[in-house]
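Q&A log
Question type: sequence-to-structure
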Amino acid sequence: MEKYKEIIEVQVQGEDKGKRVDFFLSEYLENTTRSYIQKLIDEKNIVIDGKEKIKSGNKLKGIEKILVRIPQDEMLEILPEDIKIDIVYEDKDMVVINKDPGVIVHPAQGYYTGTLVNAVLYHIKDLSNINGVIRPGIVHRLDKDTSGLIIIAKNNISHVKLTEMFKDKTIEKRYVCICKGNFKKEIGRVETLIGRDSKDRKKMAVVTENGKKAISNYKVLDSVNNFSLVEVGIETGRTHQIRVHMKSLNHPIVGDSVYGSPTDIAKRQMLHSYFLEFIHPITNEKIKILGALKDDFLSVLNKLKLNKETILELNK
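Response status: OK
Response body:
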């Protein structure tokens, strides 16, 4: 087995001059805590301009080249936690959960408690083990601040079949989001390549090369002055796909501080996975599941006077 799971190269910019190394890297690397960065520094897995002997409090000059060496996953015991989850469908083969915003799906660098997996281990006793102790039952994921429907496999047979269904694009996934601005076209299709942003590894971007094909289909459900409620169906599942595509249309999602700008209107990106439709991997029954909007999403809809009833009308 290779010693490192990933080696990340980071070029520090002038605007980062004066920041502490641990603070800068915990900001720069997604889902990474300062304590985890400090652990990497102690283990000499952070290399700055070829030097391994550094301190967490070292200040950046704004010109450094940093290598972050991510070790292979440790054999960890991920413990069940009594965290409330919203189960909207369950049978002997799978569970569908309407995830709350602010919840990380599975343990990651520095995040080993408070995740959806910790909650699932408490509430559900039978889970597939294909993805090991870190991701039991996890077939797909949602961003931390994206709410909505996520499928959990309860055994390895359903896990394998669900994974194949996602790969073959036979699971229909639809989202709703609140975007800035008013669209010129009420119905549209966005087909691009998405890859890492060359200037900021934490971000994804529409690229012309070295990216993966990404397809999103959108429909405007309601519009008010400078805001739109939009349904988006995705044919592919690229990282941050909808957020990147909405930004590329110059209609970033409200509350998305990464691909848009911070706002007092919303504390997180207003993106919710509300609809799943697929053939059950074991029984071959047709399954259609709706995930109710979360309270903060409803609050923003009401604040902007966007009509939430248009979402319900889609599925009558």
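Response note: Residues 156-167 form the longest helix (12 residues).
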